Amino acid sequence: MTTHQLLNPQDHAHLRLLPRSGAEPHFVQIVPGEFVAAAIACPILFSKDVATGAFYAGAVLGLNPGEGALKSAEERGGFEPLNLQRDGFFISGERIAIDRGHPRFSETQGEPLFDEAQQPSPSLRQIQRVLGQLHEGIEQTALLVRDLVNLKLLEPIDVSLNFDDGERLRLEGLYTVSRDSLRELGDGDVQRLFRSGHLHLAYTIAGSLNQLAVLAHLRNRKLAGV
């Protein structure tokens, strides 16, 4: 039985929103507007959608799917992916829909979704902004990926990490921006990428790889109980 419902004050005036809880996934889709904030705390890599084969960008929050994120949002400098902030909400056509069965929704606790005049509450307005940023960001990602693919700047990356307890983790099916290919770009392509803002994004993605070593070190410390 589906629990997806179009959000409206007539049916959902009584609903309240609880803070997001539970473990964060190890890899979360993000959009270009989040890249700078993400890059200071975690690697940004591309993966392919299983259904469509299209590239999408993601923040690597952890190194093992079963372990979730290695840093809290506070430890990431406050970076919380939009895709996590909108938990329980999604876009359906031109409307906002909710997963009525999601644990964020309550009838007795949390912040109301609508005020007494049946207008969106501050909490719901924030969700509306998040969904708007995601919707716009998905289109921006498609344009960025088009440029990266056309200029052959994306390259596969297989990450092998060895840990002090003898475990070896291998991250596969991921892609990054090639720094070598960036340096070999012609002046015309560099200028076009610069004007579109994609050159800065490409270097941000490439530079974020430095965070892989940081996450590996953090995981080693946690395995050692430090």
Topology:
Layout: E1 4-6, H1 9-12, E2 16-17, E3 27-29, H2 35-39, E4 44-48, E5 55-60, H3 82-85, E6 89-92, E7 95-99, E8 105-106, E9 111-112, H4 122-150, E10 154-162, E11 168-177, H5 179-183, H6 187-196, H7 198-207, H8 210-223
Antiparallel strand pairs: 1-7, 2-8, 2-9, 3-5, 4-5, 6-7, 10-11
Number of domains: 1
Main beta-sheet annotation: 3 strands, antiparallel
What's the helix count? 8
As residue ranges, the low-confidence spans are none
Mean pLDDT: 93
- Overall strand count: 11
Distance between the termini: 45 Å
The global form is: globular
Computed over alpha carbons, the radius of gyration is: 20 Å
Give helix % range.
25-40%
Structural class: alpha+beta
The succession of helices and strands, N to C, reads EHEEHEEHEEEEHEEHHHH
Strand order of the largest sheet: 1-7-6
Strand-residue proportion: 15-25%
